[in-house]
Amino acid sequence: EAQVTQNPRYLITVTGKKLTVTCSQNMNHEYMSWYRQDPGLGLRQIYYSMNVEVTDKGDVPEGYKVSRKEKRNFPLILESPSPNQTSLYFCASSLMGYSNQPQHFGDGTRLSIL
Amino acid sequence: GESVGLHLPTLSVQEGDNSIINCAYSNSASDYFIWYKQESGKGPQFIIDIRSNMDKRQGQRVTVLLNKTVKHLSLQIAATQPGDSAVYFCAEGETGANNLFFGTGTRLTVIP
Q1: Phi-psi domain of A72 (left: phi exceeds 0; alpha: psi -120 through 50; beta: other)
Q2: Which of A25, B10, B37, B101 has the fewest C-beta atoms under 10 angstroms from its C-beta?
Q3: Is residue A83 helix, strand or coil?
Q4: A71 to chain B, closest Cα gap in Å
């Protein structure tokens, strides 16, 4: 089954404790992206990757890092999480890195930073 | 970034009725539009898309209408069912750009 898989689905942690949210897709998609979803704000892009070893900042990249060492994986790293990063996070992928194609989303990771 | 919004934050319809969800966009250069459905606890699910060279596209029980003159997009759901209850949001993209811009969503509630 074609899918985007995120782990963990839920995480409660404390300020300053480094964490990584993994994202993997099995569709051989070139483009991958991370979003955060907050009430009333919709989906905001954090980082995206057009292909392996190519990453770029989205609209809200501060406090986040990403890497794209393999085509299928695109982990999101919070080096020193803070409470304002409490949110619902989604990873997405699409076949090519152009904004005229649908993106396929994972089921989300709910992070709570205390 | 561009503004992608919705006219109504909530919509309640009777089961069996048709639903219409609206979306306004502000970027005249946008040439690709998508509707997503997001159920509770799940990620956004692709419903239907349309390119700017079309003004209407139909899927299974869904129709998307695009009015480029007034920069308006709508999603019509025929014979709405309880399983259609979810948040629906639109997204816009521009050929040559790298990102989609998403609206905030409309919550559709289907009354049995």
Answers
A1: alpha
A2: B10
A3: helix
A4: 17
Cβ-Cβ contacts under 8 Å for B70 (sequence gap 6 or more): none
Under DSSP, is residue B53 helix (H, G, I), strand (E, B) or coil?
coil
Q: What is the pLDDT of residues A57-98, one digit of tens each?
A: 999 999 999 999 999 999 999 999 999 999 999 999 998 876
Closest chain B residue to the Cα of A106, Cα to Cα: B43
Q: Do B43 and A41 touch (CB under 8 A)?
A: no
Rama region for A28: left / alpha / beta (φ>0; ψ in -120 to 50; rest): left
Which residue in B4, B34, B102 is closest to A102 by CB distance?
A: B34
* Residues of chain A contacting B23 with CB distance shorter than 8 Å: none
Give residue A101's identity as a one-letter amino acid code: Q
Given an 8 Å threshold on Cβ–Cβ distance, is A48 in contact with B94?
no
Asked if B105 lies within 8 A of A42 by C-beta distance, the reply is yes
Contact B80, B15 (CB under 8 A): yes
